Amino acid sequence: MQRWRGLEDIPQDWGRSVVTIGSYDGVHRGHQLIVGRAVERARELGVPSVVVTFDPHPSEVVRPGSHPPLLAPHHRRAELMAQLGVDAILILPFTSEFSKLSAADFVVKVLVDKLHAKLVVEGPNFRFGHKAAGNVEVLAELGRGYDYEVEVIDLRVRGEAGGGEPFSSTLTRRLVAEGDIEGAAEILGRPHRVEGVVVRGAQRGRELGYPTANVETLPHTAIPADGVYAGWLTADNERMPAAISVGTNPQFDGTERTVEAYAIDRVGLDLYGLHVAVDFLAYVRGMAKFDSIEDLLEAIGNDVKRSSELIEAYEAERG
Question: Of the residues 122, 186, 195, 260, which is catalytic?
């Protein structure tokens, strides 16, 4: 899959293509419907498929300080798009100047002059252009003059997550923030992931016999509610069952919120400085302060046991 950063990276000889545009944070099941349809139609038409997205999130430019928690960084979104069969991804730097482009100017500069769109596939709530003045009706009207068609995909695919609400990044962020990572996974189609570099912490886990990877998460990451979770720690392409702690470490009167993952039954791991991924499978318990270190150790032992059971059950069910 080709990856372009800005319009200038698009090859000069780029021909017609099928395009879809959006933030696509999380590449959840609703997004997968749109992107999958774009890939399908591109293959039918014999042209490449292109996903257009933005960095930073448009809200941060339009309303500084309002950047939403991110469900997936851009490199992760690109990986997920590649798995869906996308041929190219274009990340447009979203600047104050760019935000002032009218809907018509956006269509000309991006879809017509650079990507030579033959078809644009979007969800029904797609908005674009200055002050989000453009919608799918405007997009289609402009397409009649610029020789591209528009196909709108209905995203009202309902499930149990969120009480039957349509799949959305906003709903997913809310579920993650509430610690309902199983509900978030239903929307995402996979466990929620956070990433970052392993840094040195207080090393209390090592002293207690449960050494953890203290993950310095990427900016604006959507981090689950405080508590203990079952999941996986992935480092150097190795995925390891893990018990994960999110919170301020109240046992030792901590103040900084951290994400720490204990790779179950792994000894001698040296992960400092590595970029790792932590996938959250299931909520185990809330964060608590215990009466003694002995009580804490007993709780950690139970957390590890419960995490192992949940992971084994999940993997057995998936075969």
Answer: 260
